[in-house]
Amino acid sequence: RLGAMLPYAPLLDLISRGSGKPLVATSGNSSGAPVCYTDEQAKEQLSAIADAVLTHNRDIVVPQDDSVAQHTQYARQRILLRRSRGYAPTFYEKTPLALQDSMLAFGAELKSTFAWQHLGNTYISPYLGDLDSFDTRERFEQVLNHFGELLQARPRQLLADRHPGYFATQLAERLAAAWQVPLQKIQHHEAHFAAVLGEHGKLTEQQDSILGVIWDGTGLGDDGRIWGGEFFVFQNGRMERAFHLEYFNWLLGDKMARESRISAMSACHGLDVLPGLLDTKFTPSEWVFYQKMLESGTSLQTSSMGRLFDAVASLLGLADKISFEGEAAMRLESLAHRYFRHHGLPATPGSFAFPLEDLSESAPIGFKSIFQNLLDGLRSGEAPELLAARWHLTLIRMIEKIASTLNVPAIAFSGGVFQNSLLVDLLIHYLKPRYKLYFHQQLSPNDECIAYGQLARARILHHY
Questions:
Q1: What is the DSSP letter of 387?
Q2: Which whole-number Å values give the CA distances from 289 to 251, 262, 272, 333, in the listed order?
Q3: Helix/strand/coil for 153
């Protein structure tokens, strides 16, 4: 996407007017590193990429990235992509969590935040970045210590994700031992669901069941697999996993998230694939090696909807490897947008959706038939724009079918997949007449909401 912004500070206005021409602006950091906020850091870290550095005689005490939000094209639904400057740490609750006097949640690994519930107020840190670098981890601890000094408090209980490899979880374990306070671990997707429920004041005293559609790239499940295509039901304090996408092979760890072609190969394993569609995306040695991995049956399993978006994008020739997170899914969304702009929305999603397999309470939701129909569409010469649109409408039909099967009056959505503005618009267009829909309002649907969701899930568990 191409974005334009007006100067949002007097100094930027002076620079803009003085230059007399449009300027290219980016954040004050190299890719993957936290934003620089001291003169020394800027001179040391940005000298190779910045022609000049404009300093100020006022020090920045607490660094914050710019916030990023978008509005969907049709319904104008706001989706926060990054919650930072101008939003954090303030959080307005419809129903206060009312936990014990001080509880601290450490969030997840990617798009990290922490959340502190203290004396009836909830404070959510600004976006702090992905905790896979030393500098970001150092920044996370620095901002956490700053909050402790501001609140003049030490938490009485800690909350963390169940993934043992997350730095945030490891930090929580270390501080729990040092402070001699209990640590409770919350499942990743339950935290997502609880976060959107908490934003709408639906954690307690709620009678009607709510379907939670939690779709993202990765999160450790209770069965040791990687979840990401989940359907939960919440009613009167009980949160249960009702359905999930069928598992497929997760290959090569984070490499799969960076190379959409691997997701396509895994999702299409065992299907009738047109020769030259998939194998040409790999070298001959890669193809043989990966096929052996798939056939061995020893790979980690996943139900990730995020990886299925990657797979479809690769099959449609949009991206086999990505240069930034979410690129493949964004290209797929853009392609489907193009189709709907030219042809409009069909009267019902079912008229365009790929056929779905029958639902069974004891079986996962099959996606193989969806992919086989997509492959057949490619074979018969259907335009990529049409297939991208049909993929999005198939997901609407899937949610619609599950909501009808479970007979729920309301549906809540969380997870990084729901940063897809087209998907949100389609949900509102087709489902809002019959269901109450809950989207995030103050938080991002991505993993930034996990820390608050951990507090919200603890609230449910403590209340009931």
A1: H
A2: 11, 12, 20, 31
A3: coil
Enumerate the β-bridge partners of residue 295: none
Q: List pLDDT tens digits, range 353-374.
A: 999 998 887 789 999 999 999 9
Distance CA 78, CA 75 (A): 9
Section 233-261 average pLDDT: 94
Say how far apart CA 108 and CA 113 lie, in whole Å: 7
- 253 pLDDT tier (thresholds 50, 70, 90): confident
Using alpha carbons, select from 213, 159, 217, 70 the residue that is nearest to residue 452: 159
Q: Where are the alpha helices (DSSP H) in 209-359?
A: 254-258, 260-267, 284-296, 305-315, 327-343
Q: What is the DSSP string of 168-220?
A: HHHHHHHHHHHHT--EEEE-HHHHHHHHHHHHTT-SSS--S-EEEEEEEEEEE
Gap between the Cα atoms of 285 and 167, Å rounded: 35
Helices (H), 49-187: 134-151, 167-179
Dihedral over alpha carbons 234, 87, 161, 418 (to 10 degrees): 60
To the nearest 5 percent, what fractions of the chain are helix, strand and coil?
Answer: 40, 15, 45
Angstrom distance (rounded) from CA 456 to CA 438: 16
pLDDT at 7: 85
Q: What's the rounded Cα separation, in Å, for the pair 196 and 441?
A: 8
DSSP letter, residue 137: H
Nearest to 75 by CA among 433, 411, 438, 424: 424
CB atoms within 10 A of CB 292: 9
Please give the span between the terminal C-alpha atoms of the chain, in angstroms, as a whole number: 45
Query: By CB neighbour count within 10 A (0-12 exposed, 13-18 middle, 19+ buried), where does 184 fall?
Result: middle
- Residue 23's pLDDT band, with cuts at 50, 70 and 90, is confident
Indicate the SS3 state at residue 123: strand
Q: Torsion angle, CA of 456/458/463/464, rounded to 10 degrees?
A: 110
**Total residue length of the chain:** 464
| CB-based burial, 411-443: b 16+ in 10 Å, e otherwise | bbbbbbbbbbbbbbbbbbebbeeebeebbbebb
The mean pLDDT of the chain is 94
Encoding tokens for residue 7? 């100067």
User: 94-98, 126-130, 248-252, 258-262 — which is least confidently predicted?
Assistant: 94-98
| Model confidence pLDDT, tens digit, residues 142-160 | 999 999 999 999 999 999 9
Supply the Cα-derived Rg of the chain in whole angstroms.
23
Q: Indicate whether 205 pLDDT > 80.
A: no
Q: Contact, 315 vs 264, CB < 8 A?
A: yes
pTM, two decimals, is 0.95
